[in-house]
Amino acid sequence: MSAFSLAGKRVWIAGDRGMVGSALTRRLENENCTLVSAPRARLDLRRQADTEAWMMAERPQVVFLAAALVGGIHANDTQPGPFLYDNLAIATNVIEAARLAGVEKLMFLGSSCIYPRITPQPISEAALLTGPLEPTNAWYAVAKIAGIKLCQAYRRQYACDFISVMPTNLYGPGDNFDLSQGHVVPALIRKAHEAQRSKAPTLEIWGSGTPRREFLYVDDAADACVFLMQNYTGEDFINVGTGEDLTIRELAEQVCRTVGFEGQLTFDRSKPDGMLEKRLDVSRLNGLGWRYRVDLAEGLKRTYAWYCQNFADASADPARRRTMQ
Ligand code: GDP
To answer: Per the confidence metrics, is the pTM higher than 0.85?
Structure first.
């Protein structure tokens, strides 16, 4: 019997159309709860009055706050305005509306980019605000840190049961395969697929290939979120990851094996490396009783299969092609 039951509750996944929100939707189908949904066309979470009105009308009892403007290193670096404003607005509006509507429990999803650029590895939760942020994602990180702090402040002042989790780099079905907006896993899958199809001799990797990253399959991340919603409460936020990392070069090699591309890797050093290493200390999460299941090889296989089904053969279909430009 878990400490907090979702059974019979009205649950809102803010951001349910996104990669993480979709995985949470799949996962919550097993939990005997009622999902409420706010179609994006009807509710802009950057509008405070609209967000509050929607929440007061729909009265969710549980909220997973997975809505965010997300993107890879290039998108973060070149669009600082929306990465800061949209994410601050979404976090503050949803958290405040949840307080006003008397939501029983809320989970705010942050990101491992909240941590200082240079910090001991693996990164424990205690590293927050102990040093300067990585400049390529500082805008997004500041918004996520504000969200954590708002949950903590509302716990203290209003006794709201609002918790936060910090997932590592996530990937999987529903990811953004746009090369300028997306993260490294979908970008490399798409590039390797296209290189293999066109029999290109090389595949270009951004940066030096030496940065280290940790990757968690999105359905595992959703499972961890549901587990923590049910079994954890407290002011401290919790890292969510595998605790294992690899270099971007090693990742690229693994993607090439998955896709069947046999050419050479080249490195575009004019592109940023970002954080040199970013591996989470997941001992708190493991101590609570959760561990990941889908390893990188299996996760890449499933993600590539999803890409092939949804995009790779879409070149003849302009409507589909538009969504990935
Ligand atoms: P980050 O974890 O916030 O830095 O976000 P990304 O997933 O966008 O990038 C991770 C690392 O992969 C960085 O060092 C990038 O330079 C590197 N990388 C290599 N090739 C690519 C690519 O094609 N797209 C992206 N987004 N990153 C790449």
So the answer is: yes
Verify whether residue 140 is a known catalytic residue. yes
- Please state, in angstroms and rounded to a whole number, the distance separating the CA atoms of residues 115 and 123: 8
> In the 3-class helix/strand/coil scheme, how is the chain assigned residue by residue?
CCCCCCCCCEEEEECCCCHHHHHHHHHHCCCCCEEECCCCCCCCCCCHHHHHHHHHHHCCCEEEECCCCCCCHHHHHHCHHHHHHHHHHHHHHHHHHHHHCCCCEEEEECCHHHCECCCCCCECHHHCCCCCECHHHHHHHHHHHHHHHHHHHHHHHHCCCEEEEEECEEECCCCCCCCCCCCHHHHHHHHHHHHHHCCCCEEEEECCCCCEECEEEHHHHHHHHHHHHHHCCCCCCEEECCCCCEEHHHHHHHHHHHHCCCCEEEEECCCCCCCCCCCECCHHHHHHCCCCCCCHHHHHHHHHHHHHHHHHCCCCCHHHHHCCC
> Structure tokens of 63?
């909220």
Could you report the per-residue pLDDT of 25-78, keeping only the tens digit for each? 999 998 999 999 987 778 999 999 999 999 999 999 999 999 999 999 999 999
Q: State the distance from the centre of ligand 1 to the C-alpha of 212, rounded, in angstroms.
A: 10
Ligand 1 mutation pick, 206, 215, 255, 280, max ligand atoms within 8 A of CB: 206
Residue 274 Cβ inside 6 Å of ligand 1? The answer reads yes
Residue 2's pLDDT is: 64
Q: Is the CB of 184 under 6 A from ligand 1?
A: yes
List the catalytic residue out of 115, 140, 171, 292. 140
Nearest CA to ligand 1 atom 14: 273
Helix 80-100 and helix 48-58, axial crossing angle in degrees, nearest 10: 40
